[in-house]
């Protein structure tokens, strides 16, 4: 036999062996499959068939337990996510939606983690808000979230208001010569657009108010916005009041609110239930409005509750049961409406403070939901602000019935308070911190040591960094922004107000409405997202007739705002730096999120005409 044939035989034997092994394996597998299919494991380990059944049962049990655990874990995770979403929604709604980094242009690079967290929070907040909008158990629950609130249609001009506190002009006011009234209107550049032709005169003295229980000690006379709006708001008309920052708009809506409730209580048998709601964009502003409401309604023994996020709900729920007035941030108020703790079905007086902010895309949906919870036929709606961009006017008009529009100063164009000296410095991004330090040294040294300075940043992380930088340089500094707990925010603001800490670093949560006494200087380290926010930020100084000062760092990143800023500076008679002009003077048209590029600006008061006073 040749060597080759032996090798061939060996190969052949190997192949036969392999084929046999494969066949055995196949048979074994087929047998196992049949057994498993019949519910009995193969007796491979030499156990009896009975023992095999036990093992199967055990295995099934273990499998079921594993499955249950998995399901529980999934449910727990879903619940946690839901809770997180509520917090995120509150953050977006109550604090300032603009603090969510991905919602804004990014002048600075955020870390991957920050971006991911922000994206997740925003996504969940959106999902949650949508879910809640549809789940809302009130009388308009069937309306999808984008449906405008139901309207009462009045003939034009509108008929008499449904609820009025029974305002009658005082005899002394009526007796004043028309020229005195005209002088007052001209001196304060008051424009009244009254679709009702009601010929109501401004209440130029507190003594012309209907008999009241208000203590105006410390004030000599009503401010122009108070004088001009009171006759209309006291008469029960819807009203838009636009006046500069720090001009007393809070009392402009607080006084009629209190009179309104007193009148209702006197005329109705049942005096229970919330009658007035004031909505504000931030918790701190809500608390400030609440303090004013409390002070001025004390005599009338009305009960007010402040409803805002970031704190437990129990106390708010309890107070809501006996409240006449609710001052609220939108997120928490909607929460309490949804769970049935806040009943707005008796409300007939609604105020949107900082109305343009309340109607912009961050809050629009929340406001619609609140409005749906209030019966529209009896609702008197008031909107107050220092800035009234075209982009929100159409939306505002859908919530109002033939409103009287009152503006102090030429406010159809954006106007900053003229008593604020504005300085804009075009600067390199990297030079900001050293320039800030130099400004603080200049304005807070020696005898000026305790002068209050408010520094604005755009992002929470930026505020934290600036605070750390200034503290490392030995400055006394506090901060307020959305990354802090409510207790920390409240404490920082109190310390700044009381002068215990004269330097406050803030994001735009502090831009609107806050009335902090004697803020000497506002510094904008990073330009805000909108020109309106710029006007509100610098408006934290120069309040109630005082002078103020503002410094703004302007970089290449902010060039989209150069045209609008140039206009604001020019309108207030402030110097416009050459370097700013180089960025261009074109003003970009602001588009409303709901209408996008197709938005056509329409003033809701188009059919009205300027008020004429009779002799
Ligand atoms: N009639 C008045 N006379 C003098 N001061 C007043 C009068 N009414 C209100 N004030 C004071 O003016 C200051 C500013 O008022 P308020 O906070 O209501 O301004 P605002 O117009 O709402 O400002 P912002 O636009 O910033 O929200 C407050 O300290 C308030 O006490």
Automatic annotation (TrEMBL):
<dbReference type="InterPro" id="IPR014001">
    <property type="entry name" value="Helicase_ATP-bd"/>
</dbReference>
<keyword id="KW-0539">Nucleus</keyword>
<keyword id="KW-0547">Nucleotide-binding</keyword>
<keyword id="KW-0347">Helicase</keyword>
<keyword id="KW-0690">Ribosome biogenesis</keyword>
<dbReference type="InterPro" id="IPR000629">
    <property type="entry name" value="RNA-helicase_DEAD-box_CS"/>
</dbReference>
<keyword id="KW-0378">Hydrolase</keyword>
<feature type="domain" description="Helicase ATP-binding">
    <location>
        <begin position="230"/>
        <end position="406"/>
    </location>
</feature>
<dbReference type="GO" id="GO:0003724">
    <property type="term" value="F:RNA helicase activity"/>
</dbReference>
<comment type="similarity">
    <text>Belongs to the DEAD box helicase family. DDX5/DBP2 subfamily.</text>
</comment>
<dbReference type="InterPro" id="IPR001650">
    <property type="entry name" value="Helicase_C-like"/>
</dbReference>
<dbReference type="Pfam" id="PF00271">
    <property type="entry name" value="Helicase_C"/>
</dbReference>
<feature type="domain" description="Helicase C-terminal">
    <location>
        <begin position="435"/>
        <end position="584"/>
    </location>
</feature>
<feature type="compositionally biased region" description="Basic residues">
    <location>
        <begin position="20"/>
        <end position="29"/>
    </location>
</feature>
<keyword id="KW-0067">ATP-binding</keyword>
<feature type="compositionally biased region" description="Basic residues">
    <location>
        <begin position="59"/>
        <end position="74"/>
    </location>
</feature>
<keyword id="KW-0698">rRNA processing</keyword>
<dbReference type="Pfam" id="PF00270">
    <property type="entry name" value="DEAD"/>
</dbReference>
<comment type="function">
    <text>ATP-dependent RNA helicase required for 60S ribosomal subunit synthesis. Involved in efficient pre-rRNA processing, predominantly at site A3, which is necessary for the normal formation of 25S and 5.8S rRNAs.</text>
</comment>
<feature type="compositionally biased region" description="Basic and acidic residues">
    <location>
        <begin position="109"/>
        <end position="134"/>
    </location>
</feature>
<feature type="region of interest" description="Disordered">
    <location>
        <begin position="18"/>
        <end position="167"/>
    </location>
</feature>
<dbReference type="GO" id="GO:0016787">
    <property type="term" value="F:hydrolase activity"/>
</dbReference>
<dbReference type="GO" id="GO:0003676">
    <property type="term" value="F:nucleic acid binding"/>
</dbReference>
<protein>
    <recommendedName>
        <fullName>RNA helicase</fullName>
        <ecNumber>3.6.4.13</ecNumber>
    </recommendedName>
</protein>
<dbReference type="InterPro" id="IPR044742">
    <property type="entry name" value="DEAD/DEAH_RhlB"/>
</dbReference>
<feature type="compositionally biased region" description="Polar residues">
    <location>
        <begin position="150"/>
        <end position="167"/>
    </location>
</feature>
<dbReference type="GO" id="GO:0005524">
    <property type="term" value="F:ATP binding"/>
</dbReference>
<dbReference type="InterPro" id="IPR027417">
    <property type="entry name" value="P-loop_NTPase"/>
</dbReference>
<dbReference type="InterPro" id="IPR011545">
    <property type="entry name" value="DEAD/DEAH_box_helicase_dom"/>
</dbReference>
<feature type="compositionally biased region" description="Low complexity">
    <location>
        <begin position="36"/>
        <end position="47"/>
    </location>
</feature>
């Amino acid at each position: 036999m040749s060597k080759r044939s032996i090798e061939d035989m060996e190969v052949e034997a190997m192949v036969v062996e392999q084929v046999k092994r494969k066949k055995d394996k196949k048979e074994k597998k087929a047998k196992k499959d049949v057994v498993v299919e019949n519910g009995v494991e193969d007796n491979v380990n030499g156990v009896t068939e009975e023992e095999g059944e036990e093992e199967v049962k055990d295995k099934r049990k273990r499998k079921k337990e594993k499955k249950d655990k998995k399901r529980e874990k999934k449910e727990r995770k879903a619940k946690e996510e839901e809770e997180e979403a509520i917090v995120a929604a509150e953050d977006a709604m109550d604090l300032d939606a603009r603090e969510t980094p991905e919602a804004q242009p990014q002048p600075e690079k955020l870390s991957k983690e920050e971006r991911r967290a922000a994206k997740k929070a925003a996504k969940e907040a959106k999902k949650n808000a949508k879910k809640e909008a549809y789940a809302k158990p009130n009388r308009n629950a069937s309306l999808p979230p984008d449906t405008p609130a139901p309207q009462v249609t009045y003939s034009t001009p509108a008929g008499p208001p449904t609820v009025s506190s029974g305002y009658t002009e005082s005899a002394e006011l009526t007796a004043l010569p028309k020229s005195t009234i005209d002088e007052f209107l001209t001196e304060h550049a008051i424009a009244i657009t009254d679709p009702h032709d009601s010929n109501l005169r401004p209440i130029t003295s507190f003594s012309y108010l209907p008999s009241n229980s208000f203590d105006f000690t410390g004030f000599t006379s009503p401010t122009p916005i108070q004088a001009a709006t009171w006759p209309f708001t006291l008469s029960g008309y819807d009203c838009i009041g636009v006046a500069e920052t720090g001009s007393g708009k809070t009392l402009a809506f607080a006084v009629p609110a209190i009179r309104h409730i007193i009148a209702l209580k006197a005329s109705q048998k049942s005096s229970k239930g919330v009658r007035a709601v004031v909505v504000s964009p931030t918790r701190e502003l809500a608390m400030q409005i609440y303090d004013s409401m409390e002070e001025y309604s004390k005599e009338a023994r009305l009960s007010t509750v402040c409803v805002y996020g970031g704190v437990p709900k129990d106390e708010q729920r309890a107070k809501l049961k006996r409240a006449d007035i609710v001052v609220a941030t939108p997120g928490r108020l909607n929460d309490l409406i949804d769970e049935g703790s806040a009943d707005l079905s008796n409300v007939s007086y609604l105020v949107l403070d900082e109305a343009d902010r309340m109607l912009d895309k961050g809050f629009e949906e929340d406001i619609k939901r609140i409005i749906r919870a209030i019966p529209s036929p009896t609702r008197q709606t008031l909107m107050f602000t220092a800035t009234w961009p075209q982009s929100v006017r159409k939306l505002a008009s859908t919530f109002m019935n033939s409103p009287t529009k009152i503006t102090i100063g030429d406010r159809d164009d954006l106007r900053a308070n003229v008593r604020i000296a504005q300085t804009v410095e075009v600067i390199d991004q990297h030079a900001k911190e050293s320039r800030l330090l130099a400004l603080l040294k200049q304005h807070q040294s020696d005898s000026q040591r305790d002068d209050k300075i408010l520094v604005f940043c755009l992002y929470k992380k930026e505020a934290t960094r600036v605070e750390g930088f200034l503290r490392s340089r030995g400055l006394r500094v506090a901060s307020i922004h959305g990354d802090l707990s409510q207790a920390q925010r409240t404490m920082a603001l109190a310390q700044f107000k009381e002068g215990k800490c004269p330097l406050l670093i803030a994001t735009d949560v502090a831009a609107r409405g806050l009335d902090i006494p004697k803020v000497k200087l506002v510094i904008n380290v990073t330009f805000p997202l909108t020109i309106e926010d710029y006007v509100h930020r610098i408006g934290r100084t120069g309040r109630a007739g005082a002078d103020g000062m503002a410094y703004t760092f302007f970089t290449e990143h902010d060039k989209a705002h150069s045209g609008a800023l140039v206009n604001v500076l020019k309108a207030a008679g402030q110097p416009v730096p050459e370097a700013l002009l180089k960025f261009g003077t074109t003003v970009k048209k602001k588009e409303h999120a709901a209408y996008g590029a197709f938005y056509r600006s329409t003033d809701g008061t188009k059919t009205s005409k300027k008020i004429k006073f009779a002799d």
